[in-house]
C-alpha cells in the first residue's frame, strides 16, 4: 500500500524535501507493516478505551482569574505589532 | 558531598556539616568536571542555583523545615520553568522561555529545592536513548561510549554521575524506568494521574507521568510525596489522598505475592540481564515473598498499541508549534519528530482511524483487563526493565521505531497507566548497570516502593554497589 | 418574464443552519481567563491554556456545560447520558493549539426540534445537535510598513461556544431569519448569551443547495456561506447564493461544493481560498478531559431550572391576561419586557388598573422598560386617567376660541379637507392640556363643524 506522504505532510503542516519524502515513505511503510500485527488480537466485543483514570465529570467553577499581562503573553513572539501577534497576510478570497 | 542522597544531605545540612551553598557548589563543580563528557544538561542555572542555595541556608538557619530545602535538583527540560529556557531538547524551542511554572516545579520550589539546571532528553521525549536530542546525545556515565537511555537520559546521567542529588524525569512508556536501568539509578514512574502534567510539554497525553530519578528508593518516596496529588490545572489527576510513602517503606515482604511472567523474559534478552533479574527474584523468595508464575498478555503487542496511540497523540500535541506565539517554525523539527508526527497523522486520518487508533485503544482495554486479572492473584509483578544493557552510541541511527521496540517491557504497564519502579540489581561484566522493574496496580506506589526498599536494604552489602562510574 | 417564472418554480431551496452562540460566562471554557473580551486591549485576557503554550492543559467550565445543556433542553433535545470532548485538528493562525476542543460523535444534546412561525404558517425545524466547543482567536487584516499582515488577538480564544446545527429543513431565507430571531430570543431568555450578531456572539453559517421540486433525497452538493454578520445580510446573502446556484443549475452545471464568504461591499458571496480545503479533522477523544456521565436525575433537575420559555409565556399571557396575540407578541419579545409587564400588573392590581390598560400604554406610548420602572408606569396611567374627562364648559369654550381664531382652517374643512380636524384638535389640546381626551375633543369639534 502506497502511502501518500505529501498528503500527510500537508495535513501535518510539515515541510519535507524530496529526499525526505522518499525516506519517510520507506520509514512510514515499515512502521505501518510492523503495527499490522495488532490485527492478530481479537477485539470483537471490546470497547475502546481512551482514558485510563476512570475519572468522570471533572469540571471547574466559572470564576474569572487573573490573566497573563500583554507583555507576558507576547514575550515569546518573534513578530508583533501594537499588542497583536503578527503573521504574513492571510487571504480568504480569490 | 555531591555523592550524598537526599536524606544524607538533609542530615548534613541540619547538622551544619555543610551549607547548601557548599553542597550546590560541589554539584556545580562536578558538572563542570563531567559535562564535557556527558552532556547531561541543556541549561545549567549556576547563578540562580547559588542564589537559591544562599536563601536556603538563611532559611535553614531560621529553623525552617521543608522536604527539599537546600537540596540541588535537576529537572528534565520538558518541564516549564518560569524565566528559564525550556526546550524539550528541540531547536523549535531553542529560545522559549515559559511565563509560568509547571505544577511539579511549583511544588518542588515550595519544598525548598535548589534548581541546578534543565537536563537533556530525546527531543520531545521521542525516544529511549537521548540520542535524538537536538543538542547532542548524553553519554552514559558508566561508559561514555554508551547511551544513557531515554528519554530522561540527562536526568538519569546527572544522578548517576553525582552531578545532582536527585532529578525529575517524565515517562510516557519507559522514559524514566529505562534510563534509570541503563544508568544504574532508581527511577519511579507513578500511576498516570498521580502527579500533575500541567506544564510538562505534552507527548502522549493519556500516558505522560512525571516522576523522580534518585540514588535510592527512600529518596524516590520522599520526592513522590512532594509531587503527588490532585491539581486543579490538570483534569486527569486523581483525587485520591497522597500516601505517606517515605514512612511506609517497611511493609512486610513475607506477605508479598510476586508475579513473574515468562513473557517478559523475551527471546533475545541479554543473558546477564536475565540472570541478574532471576537472581534478584530468588532473593525476594529468600526474604519470604511468595513467587507466583503468571501469564501475561504478550508484551510485543504493547509495542504496536503504544506506537499508534502515542504517535497519534504526539501528532496532535505538536500542532501548536507553529512559530507564531513562541519558538521557531515547523521546519526546525528533526527526523524522529517528523516520523512520529507523520505516522500519528496517518493513523488518525480519515479511513485509517478504525484500523489504527481505534484498534489500538481496544487492545489497550485488553491489556488493562489483563493486568487487572493478574493483580487479583499477585500484589506486584517483577520483570527486567530493559531487554538489553545500555547500547552503544549510534545504536539508534536509521532505526524507525527504536524507542518503541526498546521499551517493550515497560510499555504494557504504561499503557495501562500503572506505576512501576526501576531499581539497579547488578553491574554487568562489561561494567554496565542492570535494572529490574517492580510494577504495581494503579495508586499502589507504596507497595512497589516498599518492596523496592526492602530489596535495596537486603542487598546493601552486595559488591557491585561499591562500584561507581569512572569519570 | 413568464419563462423565468416557470424555471424558478422547479427548484426548491434546501438550507441547513449552523449557529454558534457565545456564552456569557465569567471565565473561558477551559481556563480561568475572563470571557468578557469585547473591546479589551489585545492579548490581555490570555493564559498558557488559551494561548496554547507548551504544557498547558484544559479544565472544563461547569457552568458553560450546564448552559449548553439548557439550550439543548429548550430546543427539545435528548441529552446524552454519556458524552465527551474530542479534538478537531487543523492549522490556522487563530487556533493556538492547532486543534479545537469540540464534540464529535457524542455531543451533549441531540435530536431536538423547534416550531418556527414564518409568515402565516408554523414550521417544525429539526435540531440535529447542540454541542460545546471553544472559540478561536481573532484575526484582523491590516497593512504594516506597506506589507499585508494579519494581526492576531487571542482574547477570544477559548471563550465557550455552543454550536446548534439544524436539519436541512429550511426552504427560504425568510424561514432562516425567523428561526434566527427565535433562537436569539431563546438564548436571551435563558440569559446565557447576548446573542448579538453585530458583536459576534451569535454567528451563523448556512449550508445552501437547491434541488428539483420532485427530487428525492438531498442534493449532491452544498455550499457553506460564512461571514454573515448581521440580520440585515442574512436574507441578502442567502438569496444571492440561491440565485447564483440556480443560474448554474439552469446551465446544467452543478455548483461546486465549497465554502464561500459573504462580501458586504460587493453584496455577493465569494469563493474562499479554503482554509479547510478537503480538511481531514482527524477527530479523536480529548485525552486531557475525562468524559461526562450524567444521571437522568441530574438532567431533570437542570430542566426544572429552565425559565419560562417565550412560547410558554406567550400562551400563558394570552390565557391569564386575556390579551390579543398581537399584544402578547410584543410583550414577550424580550424577557425583560415581559417581566416588566408582569411587575406592572402586580402594582396595578392595587389601583384596579387592568392588564389591557397597561398593555395599551406600553405599546402606544412606547414605554422604555429601563426608563420607566413598573411602579412609575402605573403612576403615569393613574395620572392620565384623572385628567382625561374634561368639564364640558371648558371644552366648549376652548373649541369656540379655536374655531374663531382659525377661520381659514374651518373653511378648508367645510370644503372637504377633513384632515384639518387633526390640526384643530391639536390647538384645542394646547389650551386644555395634552392629556385631554382626544376622542372627546374630536367628537365635539365635528359636531360644531357640521
Descriptive labels:
heterotrimer, A: 94 residues, two-stranded antiparallel ribbon, flat, B: 471 residues, alpha/beta
Summarize the structure in words.
The complex is a heterotrimer of chains A (94), B (471) and C (450). Chain A is an alpha+beta fold and 94 residues long. Chain A has a domain at 17-41. Chain A is 32% helix and 10% strand. Chain A is built from 3 helices and 3 strands, in the order ααβαββ. In chain A, strands 2-3 form a two-stranded antiparallel sheet. The longest helix of chain A is centred in the first third of the chain and has 18 residues, at 18-35. Chain A starts with a helix and ends in a 6-residue tail after the last strand. The model of chain A has no long low-confidence stretch (mean pLDDT 92). Chain B has a single domain, classed as Amidase signature (AS) enzymes (Alpha-Beta Complex), CATH 3.90.1300. The model of chain B has no long low-confidence stretch (mean pLDDT 97). Chain C has 3 domains: 2-300, no CATH class; 308-386, no CATH class; 392-449, Arc Repressor Mutant, subunit A (Orthogonal Bundle), CATH 1.10.10. Chain C has 14 helices and 17 strands. In chain C, β13 (223-226), α4 and β14 form a beta-alpha-beta unit. The longest helix of chain C is centred in the middle third of the chain and has 20 residues, at 231-250. Classes of the chains: A alpha+beta (94), B alpha/beta (471), C alpha+beta (450). Chains A and B meet through α1 and α2 of A and α9, α10 and α11 of B. β1 (59-60) of chain A pairs parallel with β2 (60-61) of chain C, so a sheet runs across the interface.
Helices, strands, pairings?
The complex is a heterotrimer of chains A (94), B (471) and C (450).
Chain A: H1 5-11, H2 18-35, E1 59-60, H3 70-74, E2 80-81, E3 84-88
Antiparallel strand pairs in A: 2-3
Chain B: H1 6-14, H2 20-38, E1 41-44, H3 46-61, E2 72-76, H4 103-110, E3 114-119, H5 153-160, E4 166-171, H6 177-183, E5 186-189, E6 209-214, H7 217-227, E7 257-261, H8 271-286, E8 290-294, H9 300-317, H10 335-348, H11 354-377, E9 380-384, H12 402-406, H13 411-415, E10 419-427, E11 433-440, H14 445-458
Parallel strand pairs in B: 2-3, 2-4, 7-8, 7-9
Antiparallel strand pairs in B: 1-3, 4-6, 5-6, 5-10, 9-11, 10-11
Helix pairs in contact in B: 2-3, 7-14, 9-10, 9-11
Chain C: H1 2-9, E1 11-22, E2 60-61, H2 62-74, E3 78-79, E4 82-83, E5 86-89, E6 99-102, E7 109-118, E8 121-134, E9 138-144, E10 147-153, E11 160-166, H3 173-189, E12 202-212, E13 223-226, H4 231-250, E14 258-263, E15 268-271, E16 284-285, E17 292-293, H5 296-304, H6 310-321, H7 325-331, H8 335-349, H9 355-364, H10 374-386, H11 392-405, H12 407-414, H13 420-432, H14 438-449
Parallel strand pairs in C: 13-14
Antiparallel strand pairs in C: 1-11, 1-12, 3-7, 4-17, 5-6, 5-16, 7-8, 8-11, 9-10, 12-13, 14-15
Helix pairs in contact in C: 3-4, 8-9, 8-10, 11-13, 13-14
